[in-house]
Amino acid sequence: MEKKLVVAIDGPAGAGKSTIAKLAAEELGYIYIDTGAMYRSVAWKFLQEKQVFSPELVGRLAAEMEITFKPEAKLNRVFVDGTEVTEAIRTPEVTEIVSKVSAVGEVREAMVAQQRRMGEAGGVVMDGRDIGTVVFPQADLKIFLTASAEERASRRHKEMLAKGMQVDLQQLQTDIEARDKQDCEREIAPLCCAEDAIYLDTSSMSILEVTAKILHLVREH
């Protein structure tokens, strides 16, 4: 019987981690755990409170909420305490505050505890900023997925235009570079490439090429 692995995919904002992880999980018959969606869910929950931001408040909300995933066809539906937030957590308002929320120690503790419970049996693909360094440092396979800021902004721009959202490409790139700086310099679990991770620059690769590469690496392991 094939051993089911824990596959950790880390990388900066807009690198395509979620898309790739989802496709790889589907092909492998693994569970896809979108950790970015989990932090976005905390940010969404905080915005519903309509209160002034405080680490204590977001920490309490994160500790009390339950996040679940329900894969359906090509969609990984996200629920917070039974309420679907799949689309709601992708708004610009959530994007604007998610780095600030995820930098709070109590939020990270609560999310890491949930993520470890989800992945303890193996057979999971998990993507985020600190999966291979903090959440699952003993993951069977660690991949650091990245691309240039220009390429990531271009991908996000096309994605948003396809959804009918009008956005400025240069502003997107500026936002991505600012997010990179914030993620890399935060005090708790900063974004970095684990020493034993495979570094994969996807700037000139298609989604299918990256997915095929990751599937090959999983089967090698």
Structure, explained:
α3 runs parallel beside α5 and α7 crosses α8. The strands form 2 sheets. Strands 2-6-1-7-8 form a 5-stranded parallel β-sheet, with helices on both faces. The chain folds into 2 domains: 130 residues, Rossmann fold (3-Layer(aba) Sandwich); 87 residues, Rossmann fold, CATH 3.40.50.300. 51% of the residues lie in helices and 17% in strands. The chain is built from 9 helices and 8 strands. It has 221 residues and is an alpha/beta fold. The longest helix has 17 residues.
How would you describe this structure in keywords?
3-stranded antiparallel β-sheet, 5-stranded parallel β-sheet, Rossmann fold, 221 residues, alpha/beta, globular, 9 helices
Q: Care to give the gist of this entry?
A:
This protein is α/β, with parallel strands linked by helices and 221 residues long. β4 and β5 form a beta hairpin.
Pattern of helices and strands: EHEHHEEEHHEHEHHEH
Helix content: 40-55%
* Spatial sequence of strands, sheet with the most strands: 2-6-1-7-8
CATH class of the largest domain: Alpha Beta
Specify the structural class. alpha/beta
The major beta sheet can be summarized as:
5 strands, parallel
- For the CA atoms, what is the radius of gyration? 17 Å
Strand content: 15-25%
CATH H level, superfamily name of the largest domain: P-loop containing nucleotide triphosphate hydrolases
- The chain-level mean pLDDT equals 91
